[in-house]
């Protein structure tokens, strides 16, 4: 592993949000030959850290998120979230999938409130949280609109608000802004950072967009391709609060982006 700038290790278990320890995973294929998706991957995520995972398509990024979410069990190694080995989905973890996955028969507000409803939160409390989050993601006037009446950017905002509604300790995000045009993406990145910088939840964020990874994260892990291994672990020591639009012209940002890019190329060459 090429550790360019490593993060300080968490001091106690309480400082540790996620531990991925010696995880390997293979999937069965219809042809019968297993595909080794991840090979001996280990990393710790301190509480409150914004970690981006990047790597070529098929290198196992979503598989890592699925493991942290309790949807996939690794064939070897362990994934610990908030002090407990993950064996099933937890209420303390929010997962925003690559596709928005909104329920078409529910309005924006009722999509945002769905997790609270499932938990039996009283209506008045649900409504209050729904209103606060609609406001937070700039959709105050669209609470009664259905997903098909919203643009892709608006749908992503609803999906983000739905993930935040359950007030998770840990956020897993799989290419949450990938389907957006450049301007909408920048706007949502800025909004998300503003929200995140207020209470700094632990974030595990998967993206193909290196500029996005460097602009948003505290740290970027670059994976090699099939099987996924850690190629580089790069600390993004840019000051906060950050403005994703303006930071693109910062010299240090450009240097860090170049490092991530070089690591990605090296990771592809290694596989
Ligand atoms: N359910 C599955 N059954 C069989 N193989 C799978 C399954 N899920 C993932 N894989 C394989 O595991 C590898 C990693 O998949 P994964 O979805 O984690 O990659 P990824 O890094 O998220 O890719 P992308 O950037 O394209 O989303 C791929 O080779 C894929 O074919
Ligand atoms: Mg994926």
UniProtKB/TrEMBL annotation:
SMART domains attached to this UniProt entry: AAA
Task: State a single Gene Ontology molecular function.
Answer: ATP binding
What Pfam families does this protein's entry cite? ABC_tran
**Which segments of the protein form a coiled coil according to its record?**
none
Per UniProt, the keywords (alphabetical) are: ATP-binding, Nucleotide-binding, Transport
Family recorded in the similarity comment: Belongs to the ABC transporter superfamily.
Query: What name does this protein carry?
Result: ABC transporter ATP-binding protein
